[in-house]
């Protein structure tokens, strides 16, 4: 199988991300040299996907302090753990503000805050504290791939067991948005499950929605499935119902940006539509997301903050000039609406209630609702 795409590259304290605003036609890695540049890359969606934005925030935090340790003399905030905390916390609070819905970012900054607290309680050696914080920041990114592979196997085996396909290569799975290597540090969540089914010879085709207005499906998932040579079919977001009426779809597998304590799940806008239609057609609806996406402090979906993206983003489409003039690849952005359109609704995510979700998969296993229950008990898988 061809090498997967990589969202973040690191070498020593150097960080580069692939600019996902230019994909699939232009693959350009851009350097990230500060927490401000990481914050901007997350906010402007040069990098996106709940696990990937948490990874970049953590890596940029580690980069910042790796460079601080090289200063001679060390910066003043190394004078004491209190001074260190007073310097570190605003940086974490700032990174947390990049995007509001994906809880992974908040879990990463809270994890680093807790690490700082724990270390400061046992030593006054600020250099040692900072060295451990750097390691922790890198760990948050490094843990991702192993988790994703574990989830893919749990979810894939659960689906194979549920469907009991009569012959190999017969399972068709629909997904929404992009949840592959570009949205994580590698392999992916829901797209990881689809990749696993392909690897074990059970997948017929992967179906994916365009996922407007940012086109994570038509630009990023299309590129990943093509790169991985996984048979696939793109559909427009409006065609999910028709697809279910005319094709044997065995499951819908999606990622998540925040899963509430009862199982209500926030994910890319359009996911709820697919869940309602999947319930109408008795198609299993599977959420695949790491434990760092589960927010036990949020009782239900009603409390999940939903990011509203700039209205202009819903009026624009990015791509390349087509047909190209003498083979040149020229990035282009066009406005598809009247330039003075006023009323624009552009939430980035929606919430699928737990009663429309068949299974939730984390790296610890698969949760399903007890008979007659409308919500999940997630304790076994967190
Ligand atoms: O706005 P995006 O592209 O960051 O939204 C991404 C999604 O909704 C994904 O499904 C989710 O973050 C999981 S990515 C593994």
Automatic annotation (TrEMBL):
Gene3D superfamilies: translation initiation factor eif-2b, domain 1 (1.20.120.420), Translation initiation factor eif-2b, domain 2 (3.40.50.10470). The active site is at 257 (proton donor). It is an enzyme of class 5 (isomerase). The record marks 177 as: Transition state stabilizer. Pfam families: IF-2B. It comes from the Eukaryota. One of its GO terms (cellular component) is nucleus. SUPFAM superfamilies: NagB/RpiA/CoA transferase-like. GO terms for molecular function: S-methyl-5-thioribose-1-phosphate isomerase activity. Catalyzes the interconversion of methylthioribose-1-phosphate (MTR-1-P) into methylthioribulose-1-phosphate (MTRu-1-P). This is Methylthioribose-1-phosphate isomerase. The gene is MRI1.
């Amino acid at each position: 199988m061809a090498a997967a795409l990589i969202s973040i590259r690191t070498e020593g304290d150097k960080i580069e991300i692939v600019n996902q605003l230019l994909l699939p036609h232009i693959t350009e890695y851009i350097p990230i040299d500060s927490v401000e540049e990481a914050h901007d890359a997350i906010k402007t969606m040069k990098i996106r996907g709940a696990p990937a934005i948490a990874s970049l925030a953590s890596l940029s935090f580690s980069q910042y302090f790796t460079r601080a340790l090289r200063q001679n003399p060390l910066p003043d905030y190394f004078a004491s753990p209190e001074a260190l905390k007073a310097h570190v916390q605003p940086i974490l609070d700032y990174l947390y503000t990049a995007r509001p819905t994906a809880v992974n970012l908040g879990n990463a900054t809270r994890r680093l805050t807790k690490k700082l607290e724990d270390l400061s309680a046992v030593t006054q050696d600020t250099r040692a504290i900072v060295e451990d914080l750097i390691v922790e920041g890198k760990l948050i990114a490094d843990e991702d791939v192993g988790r994703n592979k574990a989830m893919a196997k749990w979810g894939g085996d659960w689906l194979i067991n549920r469907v009991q396909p009569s012959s190999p290569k017969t399972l068709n799975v629909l997904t929404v948005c992009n949840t592959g290597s570009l949205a994580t540090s590698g392999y992916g969540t829901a797209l990881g499950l689809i990749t696993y089914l392909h690897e074990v010879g059970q997948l017929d085709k992967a179906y994916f929605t365009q996922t407007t207005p940012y086109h994570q499906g038509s630009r990023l998932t299309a590129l990943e499935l093509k790169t991985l040579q996984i048979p696939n079919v793109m559909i427009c977001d409006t065609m999910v119902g028709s697809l279910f009426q005319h094709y044997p779809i065995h499951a819908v597998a999606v990622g998540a940006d925040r899963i509430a304590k009862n199982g209500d799940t926030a994910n890319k806008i359009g996911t709820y539509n697919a869940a309602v239609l999947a319930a109408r057609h008795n198609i299993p609806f599977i959420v695949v997301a790491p434990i760092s996406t589960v927010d036990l402090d949020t009782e239900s979906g009603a409390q999940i903050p939903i990011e509203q993206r700039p209205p202009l983003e819903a009026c624009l489409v990015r791509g390349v000039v087509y047909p190209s003039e003498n083979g040149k690849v020229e990035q282009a952005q066009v406005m598809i609406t009247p330039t003075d359109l006023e009323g624009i609704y552009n939430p980035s995510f929606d919430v699928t209630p737990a009663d429309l979700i068949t299974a939730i998969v984390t790296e610890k296993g698969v949760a399903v609702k007890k008979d007659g229950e409308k919500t999940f008990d997630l304790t076994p898988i967190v």
